[in-house]
């Protein structure tokens, strides 16, 4: 009896109702070279626009990315101020978008999946729109959660809010005057991690982005997404793990090796149907489960 009831319930209601997709290196592969070009552009921005010495860029960039989710978020945290739109147009403006090709296979997979489909990217909306349009997927999603969604107000000047007070206090206490003659307001994160036992806390960033759990929760709230009923597709292991912590079902994309925090792993997003047949099965079951009349109507509109 119970078995039948469960089956019935399952037929009435599929396991998921939303598919949440990262964009870069998830919906198109790393081999486009877009990610590498992006990293190079960020490094050029740090040298040309922020006056950072080229020789420390690899180490600095790595520390910022590791500790703040994006280099941009890290640069803001340690005290650099710049216009977000200018940063994005510098970093994304010269990307080899021509390497992103239309993907009719993925398009057909997406259009045949009867779930809400939403993009969740740390990138800005111009980049997201360009990449989706190159892929030919611009009409496959209900919406895009991007940089501007999570960071609607640009604080162009260092304000007097809590975080900044904490930062100012830290930097003056932590860094000896002799090492800060050129840029006394910049927190020296390289020196911070060079300490055997870093005694201070890292300054906070005003930027909201993955993999912060707060950023993911904010995104879910904005789009009215229930994590328990959502599959989250991502190429970044740390974003997958953060997604898992907030209750999402997770699909690591770009490798078939599952890691901790990933419920599924796909070498390519094209393997969706083989790796997750339940996404299509749920649809078939639910149609079978409906009374005849509804099933007929469904097939007419499909
Ligand atoms: Mg990605």
Automatic annotation (TrEMBL):
InterPro entries: HAD-like_sf (IPR036412), HAD-SF_hydro_IA (IPR006439), HAD_2 (IPR041492), HAD_sf (IPR023214), Pyr-5-nucltdase (IPR010237). Pfam families: HAD_2. GO terms for molecular function: pyridoxal phosphatase activity. CDD domains: HAD_5NT (cd02604). Keywords: Hydrolase. Its EC number is 3.1.3.74. It is an enzyme of class 3 (hydrolase). PANTHER family: HALOACID DEHALOGENASE-LIKE HYDROLASE, HALOACID DEHALOGENASE-LIKE HYDROLASE (HAD) SUPERFAMILY PROTEIN. This is Putative pyridoxal phosphatase. It comes from Rosa chinensis (China rose).
């Amino acid at each position: 009896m119970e078995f039948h009831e469960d089956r019935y319930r399952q037929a009435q209601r599929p396991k998921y109702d939303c598919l949440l997709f990262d964009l870069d290196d998830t919906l198109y592969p790393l081999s486009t070279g877009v990610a590498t070009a992006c990293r190079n552009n960020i490094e050029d921005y740090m040298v040309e626009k922020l006056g950072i010495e080229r020789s420390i860029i690899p180490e600095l960039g790595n520390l910022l990315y590791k500790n703040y989710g994006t280099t941009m978020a890290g640069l803001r945290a340690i005290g650099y101020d710049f216009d977000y739109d200018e940063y994005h147009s510098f970093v994304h403006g010269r990307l080899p978008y021509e390497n992103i090709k239309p993907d009719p296979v993925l398009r057909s997979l997406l259009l045949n999946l009867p779930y809400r489909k939403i993009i969740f990217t740390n990138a800005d909306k111009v980049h997201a729109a360009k990449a989706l349009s190159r892929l030919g997927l611009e009409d496959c999603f209900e919406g895009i959660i991007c940089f501007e969604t999570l960071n609607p107000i640009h604080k162009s000047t260092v304000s007097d809010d809590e975080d900044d007070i904490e930062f100012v206090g830290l930097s003056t206490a932590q860094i000896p005057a002799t090492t800060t003659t050129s840029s006394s307001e910049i927190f020296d994160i390289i020196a911070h991690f060079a300490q055997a036992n870093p005694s201070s806390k890292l300054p906070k960033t005003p930027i909201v982005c993955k993999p912060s759990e707060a950023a993911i929760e904010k995104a879910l709230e904005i789009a009215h997404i229930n994590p328990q009923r959502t599959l989250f597709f991502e190429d970044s292991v740390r974003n997958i793990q953060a997604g898992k912590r907030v209750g999402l079902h997770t699909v690591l994309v770009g490798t078939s090796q599952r890691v901790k925090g990933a419920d599924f792993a796909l070498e390519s997003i094209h393997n969706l149907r083989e790796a997750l047949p339940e996404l299509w099965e749920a649809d078939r079951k639910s149609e079978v489960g409906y009374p005849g009349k509804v099933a007929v109507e469904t097939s007419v509109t499909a």
